[in-house]
Every structure is written in structure tokens, then in C-alpha cells.
Please model this.
Amino acid sequence: MLKATLKISGLLLVILLAIGAFVYFKYLKPKPLPVSAEDRAAISLMPLPSYLKLSDGRFLLTPDFGAEIQGPKDSIVQKAIGRFLKQTSKASTLSFKENGVGLSVFYETATLPVQPLETTESYSLSINKKGIVLKAATAYGVLHGLESLSQLLKVENGTCTWPYLELSDSPRFVWRGLMIDVSRHWIPKEVILRNIEAMAAVKLNVLHLHLSDYQGFRVESKVFPKLQEMGSGGNFLSQADVREIVEYAVERGIRIIPEFDMPGHTLSFLVGYPELGSVPGPYQLATTFGVLKPVMDPTREEVYTFIDAFVGEMANLFPDPYFHIGGDEVNFSQWNESPTIQLFMKQNSISDAHGLQAYFNQRIEKILQKHNKKMVGWDEILNPKLSNDIVVQSWRSHKSLFEAVQKGSKAILSTGYYLDHKLPASKHYATDPEVLPGAVTIKPDSILWQQYDLVLQISESPVKTSLVLYGDSSNLRGLFFLMDNATGFEKAERLGDELKFSFKSDYGQINFEAVFSGDSLKGKMSLGFLSFPFKGKKVGANDMRGTIAPKVELIKPLFLEQKRNILGGEAAMWSEVVSAQNIESRIWPRMAAMAEKWWSPQELTKDVKDMYRRLEILSNRLDQSGLRHLQSQKDLIDDLAQGKDTGAVKCLIDVLEESKYYSRIASVTSNLIPLNEVVDAAAPESWTALKFGWTVDEFISDPAHKKNEPEIRKWLIRWQENHAAFVQCADGNPRLTKVVETSRDLQVLSIFALKALDSLTRKGSLNDNEKKAAQTAIKGMVENRAGTVLAVSSSLQKLINTAL
Model:
């Protein structure tokens, strides 16, 4: 009897294990990534491709290397291959013979005079002992494939090779852009061309040029010459310059979209043509920043006659079908104060200034359509009276992107991609156009609500989650939070102390069963035949004093067709506090992280540390190809040192970052102020601080406190000793004097961090007086000094606090 029971139990166990394995492999086991972790670690390609599989072996580059092309005749493809061979020759120091072999290029469709937005950009690469095969549906895919080949080339000990692999690739989004403001601070043609080259390297395909604002009009007009003669301060792109820029971009698969801001931000129009304004002139260019009053008069027909002629001229100069009208930050004061404009609004049943701007935009859209252009504008233009052909650029909130696509418009996201905010690459990398952070689709209830913090037991690992219930037992619904994601369920059942609800997930239907016991909750979450227990307690409710309902962003879910209306993303580089000298250091290399977000599959853009690994390699590669994002910092440091110890100045600047968001505009109020201070040399994101932070975290997490100890000690000693050298450099130098106290902060924190390091590694100890002094020093730190922040401060404090 016992044996029979054991046999049945054993059989039952086998059955349960088989069922469990089936459910795991069918529902729970993660799908293999299109690029494995091992293959990803072996390459430095950025952006990552849609699929890549490495094989053993490498293809050796020899002087016989060259390209064979099969496809329609296309000068752009020929030039791209010529650039690729030139770059490869420079990297390898090999001279290639004419009619070489090794690279076979196949494509079906040539480039077009104007690239459609829907152009197929996919390509594939196959590399083995026979050679390299690049296949693409269009010439644009060939351009991207050649950029990938350039990055995959490995130069080691005088030998150049490509890895054997199979690769297929296509972009996630069709619009992958960068906006450069050349109006507030003049950014010349040479800088634009260098940025186009860098953009092509990371497969960006849209350069949006902000060409007019309060501070300057930056394009030559032959129809209205007073635009540049009176509105540019002498700095503008000639029409020949524009044609060169457009051609240069087209040859690299990049479209140029001009922006001429209207009806606001139009002071540079009005200086030469005051009759367009809402109040009589004269006008003069602004040197200060902000939202100023001058604005076009939407009620006068001559304004539209002017814009019609102007757009007609610019439409020929910029052949792309998309034309940006700005439309943001319109100061309504002159409209509201003008009796003539108010009378027009009354006669035309326009209720307010927003309605008047909508009227203006309707008129402008018809003008653009006349010239075969599609309107692009900042999210203020969104209005049901405009056609669905417009493209809305969401900058004020991510939510406006969702609203635009749900109303049928095309949209691109700039919220979260503002380069002038000086945020770390990781922050931009976490922003996804299709994901509205914290958004839920269930309507919250601030009257009847309860929140429970739960611990879900998955295998041996506890996972913290949260549950929010809304309403009463007759209409109970709620939200389940897991890993920063909120999922709503429309119907929950509560019978006495028992709670049940379910919702669909990516892995199948999730079922919850729980029992209340006072303020506690205990139960299980089931998926198929698998069950995971949880328990928790109430942490907030409408009847719990001192608690408030959790904030959630209510948004309707996007349907597939609405998701297709999300064209992609565009980074914004506004130029209030950048110059031609340092603008590249504010764009690169962080721009590449966003390029990867928009190109690569969503599931490949979650490993932040690997992103930074490849980003640093790419940054150095861009520097070698001629981009000046690193060289400009070196030049500024040399200028700041004034012939003294450059190393001491660099040591401090390497651990500084420019203050975030718009805090610096308070001190840089005019484009006449030179941008040659320490803050202008400091990077938006310090590589030294980033690496030091990782090193400290690994040291602290090591129970024995041995990992990375020598490396940390070396850094701390250097920062401690650098202060004396920096003080000598700053003597008589007012620009350096502004950050002497920051250097002193770095020294003090380093001294205490060394004592903490000794204490943690049992090479010394912190006495009570030293502990108090360390705490006092930390509390006394000034966060922002001369527009900079000490980027290593948090890691130094973490190290010190670990020992206190």
C-alpha cells in the first residue's frame, strides 16, 4: 500500500512538474533577446541592431579590399561607399587598390530627390570567410549598413578585422531627429556639417534647424532681404550655405526641416518688416532671453500675403515636404490690448487668444499646402480644425503626444529629450515615446480608496508591489503596481473578507485571491498552474489620517493605429547658454543614447551600464572623425588655465557638471555674455563621476570591502592633493576664483572619504570628532556654485556615510 501511494505521489509530482515546465516555457520564460548578452558584450555597435548573431572567426582586411555594387545607379551610394573606404583606410592605414573585392553591396531602389518619411531603411549584413554581403531594399539601408560596418571594424596590433556574423536591422521609429537652435546664439555652417556627420553615424535621419527667434533671423531671403540685413546682426546662412547643408545631409540619409517660428518669437521678422506686427514699430533685436511681447498680427491680410511669398521662397530652398512653423509660447498681451484685434475677434466669433492663434494656424496650413508642404509645430498648435496631416511636436508634456495621436494627428516626442536640460544620458535613455510614465487607464477615486503595500514571493525572491482599491463593494476596481508599472482592473469582487480580481498580462491572465484581516492582506497570485503567495498591510486610505491617494496619470490606452501615429522622437538643443565653441559638447555623446532608443528594439534598450560602455567608445570614435565635442573642452580648459597648470584645472573640471535645467539662465541673461567660464568647459554629464559612482557602489556592496579599494584610494588622493595646485592656478584668475571653494569642497570630502575608506578596510578608524566634522562638512556643501555642481559629491558622501 505504501509503495503504491509513493508511486502515485511520484507520478503526481512528475505531472505537476511537467505542467509547471509547460507553463513556464510557454508563458513565463523570457523570450530570447534578438542580441544575446554574450554577443552584445563582444561588440560596441550603437545603436544596437534588430538582430545579431556572432560566429567564430574574423574577416581580415587586406589591401585587396574593395566594394562591388549591384543595384540602380546612384551617386549617393557611390559617395557613401567612397567615404566608407576612405574611413576604413584611415583606421587601418592600408591603401586599397581600385576594383578591390571583399564587400558585395546589393540594393533595389535608389534614393529619391525628396525622401518619403515611410522610406524603408532596413539592411542586412553577412560576414564570413568568403567576405561581406550588405543587402538593402533601398539606398538608405545601404547608408546605414555602411555605418554599422565602420563601427564593427576592430583594429588591434596593426590588424583590422570584422567579426563573422549575421545581422538584420531596421528602425523602430521613422522620425529620429535633432533640433539645433541657431538663432539665440549664432551656430555657423561648419558646426552644422560636423553634427550631420555625427548624426549619420548613429542613424539619425532628421535635422530640424530653428532659424528665427527674438535674437536673430538666420537665413538669406532674396524676396525679403531686410530679414537678414536688419534681423541677423550679420550672422546668417546664405542660400548657397543652405543648399550645401541640404545636399550634405541628403547624401547621408538626413532630411533638413526648417523652422520659422510664428506668430510669436517673431521679433527678427518685425525688425525689418514692422508692418507685420501687432503694434507699430520700430523694433530691434533682443539680446536677452525669455518670452517677449512682439507678435505678428493675425487679423491683417498683408501678413498672410507676406508669409505666402516667404514660404514660397523657403519651400524651394528647403525641398523636404515638412515645414515647421513653431507656434509655441505666444505672448497674447498685444492681442488682448489691441482694440482692432479685439474687434476682429468679435466680428469672427473668436472667443479668446487661443482661438485667434488657431485661426492663424488654419490660414498658415493652407499656405503650406499651396506650396506642397506639411505643417509641423510645437504642441500648442494642436487643434481639431487643423488637418490630420500636421505633425505635432510634444514638448510641454508626454501626455500631449498621446492626446495628439488619439485625435488622429501624427506626433513626435521631445519631452524628456531636451539636451539643454543637461540631464544624464541614462535619463534620456529611459524615456520611451510609446510609454507614458505612471499612466493608467482606470479612473481613480479620491473619495473611496485604500492602498496596500505587498510583498510577492516569486521562487525564493521577495518582490515589493502595491495594490490600490477604489470604490465600494458594489463598484470595486483598482490598480496593481509591479516594477514601476501600473495595471488597472475594472472589476473586483469582495465578499466579506475575501477579495478576488483578475487582469490580462503579457504572459496570460493573472488571478488574485486574498483575505483581509484588519489592516493586513494575505493571498496568492496565480498564472496558469503557477501560484505565488503574497502578504501586506494597508498604508493609506480615505479614512486613514495623514494619508493621501496616490497620484496616477489617467490616459486612454493607445490602439495599434494610434501607436503608428507616433513617428518617433527629436532631441532639442536650445542655444541660450551654448556657443559655437561648446554646442557639440552639449549634444554629444548623449545624443547617441536617444538615437539608440529610437532605432533599436524596445527590449534592447534597458541595459543602462552597457549603453554607457558603448557610448564612451562611440564618443572617442566621433572625436577621431572630426567632431569637436571633446576638443572644445580641451580648448576651453587651456584658455582657463592661462598658461598655468592645465592638469590641475582639468582635474577639477572632470568632476563638475553644468547645473541642470534652466538654473543658469538666471546668470546668462544675454547672448552678449561670453561663454568661456568653468561651467562652459564642464560637461553636462561627468564620465569621471559616473565611473567613480559605479566603483564606490561595488565597493560598498562587497561585504569584505575589498573590491575597487586601490582604485578609489588613488582617486581620493589625487583630488585631495589637487586643491593646492588649483589654488595656485586661480591666483589672479577671476574665472577660476569662482570655483576655488568647490575645489576646497572636493578636497575636504576626499579627506574624510579616505578616512572612511581606511575605517571600512580596517586600516584606520574615524573618531567621534572626525565623524562630527564629516557630518558638518557634508551639511555645509553648496550644491550649485558658478553654474556648476560637484558631480562626485553624492558618491563621496555615500562612502563617508557608510563608515559613520
